[in-house]
Every structure is written in C-alpha cells, then in structure tokens.
Amino acid sequence: MDAEKILAIQKDIVRVLRSIYDPEIPVSVYELGLIYEVLVGEEGRVDITMTLTAPTCPIADDIVRDVKEQVAQVPGVAESNVTLTFEPPWSKDMMSDEAKLQLGFM
Known about the structure:
- This protein is α+β, with helices and mostly antiparallel strands.
- It has one domain: Fe-S cluster assembly (FSCA) (GMP Synthetase, Chain A, domain 3, 2-Layer Sandwich), CATH 3.30.300.
- Helices cover about 30% and strands about 15% of the residues.
- It contains 3 helices and 3 strands, in the order H-E-E-H-E-H.
- The chain has helices at about 5-15, 60-70, 95-100, and strands at about 35-40, 45-50, 80-85.
- It has a 3-stranded mixed β-sheet with strand order 1-2-3, with helices on one face.
- The longest helix has 15 residues, at about 5-15.
- About 25% of the residues are buried.
C-alpha cells in the first residue's frame, strides 16, 4: 500500500472517530482528545492508542468496542486494534477548541 493510500485511510478513520461519541459527554472521542495515535500499516492493519476521561469509566468496554468495530468498517482497513492507556492521563487541555467551546470551557 502506498503512502497516499495510507493517508486516505487515516483521513477516513479520523472522520469515523469524529462520529463516535462518549454517551455521557456530547462530544466525539476525537474532539475530546481521547485518541492518542492512529497507525495504519502497509497491509491495512490499524492500531489505535486511546484513553478515557477517567480510568473508572463505567462504559469503557462499550466505547473501546465501538471504536474498534467502526474503524474496522473503513474501506482499506483489514484489521482494527485498540490499546487503552492512561499514560499520559487525560486532561481538559487535550480537548480541541471546538470541544471546549461546546462544553463551555471557553
């Protein structure tokens, strides 16, 4: 897979991530700053590193599963893997300006 195709897949993945919302917060996981890294490999393997707003999030499994399943549906993605981390810990500073505005932090 060439670099241009990988970039196109990454853009499609970001579009999908912007459509996945934390059910407790009306902002996408992407705009909340929960997505730390999206890597697309040559064979279409996607590895996502993400966090949650709190380690004790009661719907953590649902959010991670939703990210994995929706990213797996992106054309060109052969496999989707999600790694959940709490290093560095999430903070409000990780949110996009759009998310901060939507949640009244600006």
